[in-house]
């Protein structure tokens, strides 16, 4: 069964450093998402991406964040200058034209 | 108006019992209501979903009940098993090309022997 994959599973970085989180969505999917989950809290929407552009972004997704689909398979989330409060699980999700979003296993980001 | 409220925060049920988790929403534009199951260290996985044109949907031991007028929906897990122990999130979105999911706060379910 096709699945969304994410790398790395755990990323540790120093405050102020740039990080890139990588995702490979399910191959025939058209819509791509990033969500985050701070430990013990609910899953929060960050950004949606369709047809090579951002469809919607949340208040969390400020100028420090960017997304890119550099080729036909990868979907990346970049945080330019990480803050302590960026520490969270980051989930990539994708969907075809239907309703169901399929989530990856997540990347745990720890900012020291 | 975008919130989805979920209760209880945690739930302990004996094996074989019924687990019930409730959610309420405000945005009447929402028209798709999935439940996700999340095990520790894993991503959310779709469990079951419903649209507001039906009042109930059942898949195996899992049932969603939907009350459109009250703007509430609930997940019932019949014959709960220890393997059901996980965090459950209700969510909602409105049909659109790239519509985001709005999640509830989650319910940590523990099924005891």
Textual characterization of the structure:
The complex is a heterodimer of chains A (112) and B (113). Chain A is an all-beta fold and 112 residues long. Chain A has a domain at 1-8 and 30-94: Immunoglobulin-like (Sandwich), CATH 2.60.40.10. Chain A has strands at residues 5-7, 10-13, 19-24, 31-37, 43-50, 53-57, 65-68, 75-79, 88-95, 102-103, 107-111. In chain A, the strands form 2 sheets. In chain A, strands 2, 4, 5, 6, 9, 10 and 11 form a 7-stranded mixed sheet that branches. Chain A has a 4-stranded antiparallel sheet with strand order 1-3-8-7, with no helix packed on it. Chain A is globular and about 40 Å long. Chain B has a single domain, classed as Immunoglobulin-like, CATH 2.60.40. Chain B has no helices and 11 strands. In chain B, the strands form 2 sheets. In chain B, strands 2, 4, 5, 9, 10 and 11 form a 6-stranded mixed sheet that branches. A 5-stranded antiparallel sheet of chain B has the order 1-3-8-7-6, with no helix packed on it. The radius of gyration of chain B is 13 Å and the shape is globular. Chains A and B meet through strand 4, strand 5 and strand 10 of A and strand 5 and strand 10 of B.
CATH class designation of the domain at 1-8 and 30-94 in chain A? Mainly Beta
For the record, the CATH architecture of the domain at 1-8 and 30-94 in chain A stands as Sandwich
Strand content of chain B: over 45%
Task: List SSEs of chain B in N-to-C order.
Answer: EEEEEEEEEEE
| Shape descriptor of chain A | globular
In short:
By secondary structure, chain A is mainly β. Helix content of chain A is 0%, strand content 51%. The model of chain B has no long low-confidence stretch (mean pLDDT 94).
